[in-house]
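Repro:
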Amino acid sequence: MTILLAILGILVLAALAMLAASINLMHQTTRPKGKRRTTYEQARSWVSANTEEDMFSWHDSAKKEPFKLMSQGVELNCEYIPPANGSEVKKCLIRAHGYTQNMMLSVAYARAFHNAGYGVIIYDQRAFGNSGGKVCSLGWKERLDMVELVKWARSKLGEDTFIGLHGESMGAITALEAAPLIKNLGFVIADSAPDNALNRFGETDQHSMPKEPTRTFAKLLGRLMGADLSQIDPISRLDSIDAPIMFIHGDADKAVPVECSRLMFAKANGRPWRLSIFEGAQHVWNILVDTKRHEREVIEFANEAQKIWAEKQ
């Protein structure tokens, strides 16, 4: 009996320790501070240090139109960059950055689209950069922010504007979760996207916590902290997205395994989707591992998507 009580006591203490660790992890995740909120300078330095390409000079010299957008009571810090050719705008990219990042990272991804004649909207997701809000919901509330940005773009540029969504990691979740809510969408590009937030929680090598009961605690705690991971399920949204989708992933990604994009792409069923795997690329390093290939492939995909979109008009 004494042994059983001792074992029970150890199990209770272990469970409490796991609960405390889960509370701490979820609080840090949903209330990003310090190193979980990258500055513009840090984002720019990270990209510049890992590629020989000049990813930012186009933005330095471009005409920029900063604006603020209220969404669900949070003020978003946004920027619209008109197309490089100065012609009448008929194409627009809305670019969402990932967790810890800010709009400066989106500048690197948007270069190819700006050069291809797109107007570009970049912004700081809620709780990051210079946007308001203290809670990051890992893509759930953020999806509605992206919907509001689409409305803003159509109001400014016209309802007949070809619009694409693009995001990496949490930004990819944002795009995939927002897409079913947007009519007449041009395309979605999801770079390094998880297929399901709750199922992937705990798989990262950044934490030594076991998958269970971490995921169960994360589900319950997330609801209390404003980030219900059980709601974030990109793979279940795919059949509701009436636009071509491109999945991009690195096969050396330890934070979000490449299996996620492969599983989602497997649901294409003949639809005009694309899967692009970058060998040796870590999480969100795809554009850095081979910048020219990355930019070439996203523009090729966008061009094909625009042809499909035009046929529907």
